[in-house]
Each structure stands twice: as structure tokens, then as C-alpha cells.
Amino acid sequence: MSKKIQLPVQKNDEVELKIHDLNHEAMGVGRYEGYTLFVKDALPGEVVKAKVLKTKKNFGYAKVLEILEQSPARMKPPCPIFARCGGCQLQHLAYEEQLKYKEQLVKNDLERIGGLDLNKVNVYPVIGMEKPWRYRNKTQVPIGEEEGGLIGGFYRPRSHDIIDMEACLIQHEQHDQVIQKVKEIGTRLGIPAYNEDKHSGLLRHVVAKYGFATGQLMIVLVTNGEHIPAKNKLVDELVSAFPNLKSIVQNINTKRTNVIFGDESKVLWGEPYIYDKIGDIRFAISARSFFQVNPVQTQVLYEKAMAYADLEGHETVIDAYCGIGTISLFLAQKAKQVLGVEVVPEAVADAKRNARLNGMTNVQFAVGEAEKIIPWWRAQGIKADVIVVDPPRKGCDGSLLKTIIEMKPERVVYISCNPSTLARDIKILEAGGFETREVQPVDMFPHTSHVEVAAKLVVTYSHHLR
Predict the structure, then answer these.
(1) Using CA atoms, how far apart are residues 454 and 456, in angstroms rounded to an integer?
(2) What Gene3D superfamilies does its record include (predicted)?
(3) Which of 224, 231, 416, 431 is the one with CA 20 to 30 A from 24?
(4) What is the pLDDT of residues 233-252, one digit of tens each?
């Protein structure tokens, strides 16, 4: 019979903690008699009185009851619902300190998970924003009902409780106007919100997309069914409210799922696309297109990717998670040819459309899994000088990393939104004959715990000769 472990704290205990670090979720890290407690909203250097909320074998969670010694880096969050909303994690920390935290986060992952010797790799300070507010070009807000009216806002942390909001300080101002207007019109017209527990009701999410370079606006209504009561009245009022509105799209999602979008979309008014730019490249953005949410920092990130690719005009580049072609087209400005591969057919159709939009003929896009398409390209005699990867948070598929190692490109440019999976994949690539030369974090998501990273790897000479 296994012996029950006696922990130094139990649920509901109140303890005094010295906070010495932030974890990857930006929770304060304290220790009580050697036992680690993660404390939401506590900052390094602070002494807090905390209440234990949950215990596990090796760590637990607690909340701040009182700050006994306050960090000089603590700020008053400008958002009135910051303490309840799960959208931001770091508004209470001075922005310069946020950047230092994210730099250390990247370094820790590269050392501990990636096994890198940081004396031999240039890891640069995080590139921050001059104005780190109102930077997002897309918002997607769940809709609910309260006392007969529609509410909309982000979820309370670790729950699906909607915190109704009037404004979100990291979204573009027009997104706030859209959410408020849809709530107001929907309440007045009797459009019911979706009830997740009962799988009933209609309006699930409102998605707003705004082109920073063009000023164009798209509104997407995600519904649990096709029929929208008083649809024409709703559309007319939205069109009247927003002179820059170019598109209203209904997306139908009738599944019991946390996934926001369903498979079917139809244009209720206007065009199926809005347009935006990154540098000199123009992009058509549809309701379900993935497009980087911070256009200012995206240009910074892509210029760094261009520098790491080190293109002189004779190279063949493969973009292994090309999406709607954002990086592919950016790099095609200087490469001989770029081949993009993406598993989502709609994204590839958008990528091809964007190539035509910019008159680019030196790019090709294929639908499929990169780990299958790239070897097929190789069998056709195509040799990649540079391979670019920008995978989802889970990182690269293991078979894709194997394919990269076998293909031996001169350079790999790895763009990541998750430093831990970046570090894991770098370790595999290094074991396969690559060296990490430079790592540049970019603050794509100010006031949250997330950070984007660009890394440059080069094939070693001995590996290249095999």
C-alpha cells in the first residue's frame, strides 16, 4: 500500500511567501518549506500573504491575500477587469520588466530543454513596442446572456465564465465598438446567445478583423445554426454603424466543441475578404485566415527572418508551415523561388490568391503535410538552400525535423510562438548536424505571458559533406 505524502501545506492554508521568479504562465513562484507554490499576480521580490487553493505532489497554487512587501516594478493595471479577465497576465508589471522576464524565459528554455551553451549562442534582448497598447488586429469574443441581455468578453482564467467588457486595451479600438454594437443590436432584436452547457441558443462568438494599413473592417458572427432572427435588420444596422465595414460573414458551427469556427462560412454582406499589408506585401484576409495579430511587430519579426535567411537572390526557400503565404511572399522579394506547403486547403487557396495579388511568380504552394511533400520535392531534384518553419504552439512534427536533417539546407529559420517547443526542436536539429547561431525574441503580445522567437541555425560543414 502506497504511503500518503505529507505536504507542508494543505488547501485553504494561509502562508507568507517570498516570490523569487515568474513561471511560464507569469505566475509568481514562491516556496514554503521547500514546496513550490504558484501565485497569480505576485511579482518577483515581493513578500505576500497567500491562501493555498490547490495542492499536487510537487507543487500547488495560491492566491494573494495581501502584499506585505511590494515590488518597485509593480504598476496599477489600467484595465478595470484585469484581475478577473484571462486575456492579459502582466499589466501589473512595468513594461521594461515584462521584456526582461520574456528574455529570461527564452534563455531558460534554450538552456534547460534545448541543452544550448548560451556562451556560444547570441540570444538578444526582446524587441519591444514603443506603444504596447491597442496592437491586435483581430479579436474573437465569446457571447453569453445575463439578465436578459447579451454579454461579451474573455473567459475568467481556467474557466468558461465570460467576463463582460466594455473595452480591451490590447485590441484595436474599433473592435470594442463592434462588440458593443453587436451586443446592443442582438439584445434589442432578440438574438439569443449560445448556451454551452445546454448546446442551445445561437450567437457563439463575434470576431472582428481590422486592417491596420487599410482601415478595412470585417465582422464575423459565429452561430449555432443557419437561421439568424431579423438578419437583414442586424446587417443593415451594422453597415450603418461602421462606414469602413467591408465584410459581414456568418460562420456556422453546430458542434459541441471549444473550437471557435465551424466548416461553413457565408458572406452576409460585402466582400469575402479585407486587405492589409506587411511591408510592401498586400494580403487578402478571409474570415478563417490565420494572419499574425500584431502587424507592427510582425514586420519586425519578418525582417529578422529575412536577415536570418541571408538571401542573395539565387536561393530556393521552403516554407514548411506557410499558412496564407505571409512569410513565403515576404521572403520571395529576395529569393530565386519559394515553395510553401500547408495542410489546410483553404489557407493554400488564400496563399495562391495573395501571390497573384502581389504579381509574384516565383512562389508555389502545395497542400499536404510538410514531412511528405518536402521529400517528394527533393525526389524531383529540388534542393532547399533555406528552410523556414513557423509551426503551431506544439512545435514541429518529428518526421518534419527528420526530413530537414536529411535535406541539409544551409540555413534553417525557426519562428516560434512557444519557446519550450522551439528549444525541444532545436535540440533535435543540433543532434542532426545544425548549429544555433542567433536567437531574437520579439514581443508580439505585450501584457501577456507569450513571446515570439526567431532562431537562425546553420548546417555544420561536416554534416553538409555527408
Answers:
(1) 7
(2) 2.40.50.1070, Nucleic acid-binding proteins, Vaccinia Virus protein VP39
(3) 431
(4) 999 999 999 999 999 999 99
Beta-strand (E) ranges in 107-210?
122-123, 138-146, 149-152, 203-210
66-112 tens-digit pLDDT: 999 999 999 999 999 999 998 999 999 999 999 999 999 999 999 99
Looking at domain 14-69, which CATH architecture does it have? Beta Barrel (2.40)
292 assigned binding-site residue: yes
User: What confidence tier does 463 reach under pLDDT thresholds 50, 70, 90?
Assistant: low
Euclidean distance between CA atoms 273 and 238, whole angstroms:
17
Name the residue ranges covered by the structural domains of the chain.
14-69, 99-130+294-465, 138-278
Dig out the grid coordinates for 19 from the structure: 516570490
Q: Supply the pTM of this predicted model.
A: 0.93
Q: Would you say domain 138-278 falls under CATH 3.40.50.2020? A: no
- Characterise 260 by phi-psi region: left (phi > 0), alpha (psi -120 to 50), beta (else): alpha
Q: Is 342 annotated as a binding residue?
A: yes
pLDDT of residue 1 exceeding 50: no
130 is in an annotated binding site: no
Classify domain 99-130+294-465 at the CATH superfamily level.
Vaccinia Virus protein VP39 (3.40.50.150)
Annotated catalytic residues are 417
Domains 14-69 and 138-278 are alike in CATH topology: yes
Could you tell me if 150 and 186 are in contact, meaning their C-beta atoms sit under 8 angstroms apart? yes
How would you classify the pairing of strands 149-152 and 138-146? antiparallel
Of the pLDDT bands very low, low, confident and very high (cuts 50, 70, 90), residue 371 is confident
**b/e for 123-155, b at 16 or more Cβ within 10 A?**
beebbbbeebeebbbbbebbbbbeeeebbbbbe
Report whether 152 contacts 179 (CB < 8 A).
Answer: yes
Residues 6+ apart with CB under 8 A from 82: 88, 91, 92
Q: What is the mean pLDDT of residues 441-461?
A: 96
pLDDT one-digit tens code per residue, 188-215:
999 999 999 999 999 999 999 999 999 9
Cell of 284: 487578402
Position 451: which residue type?
V
The annotation status of 97 as a binding-site residue, yes or no, is: no
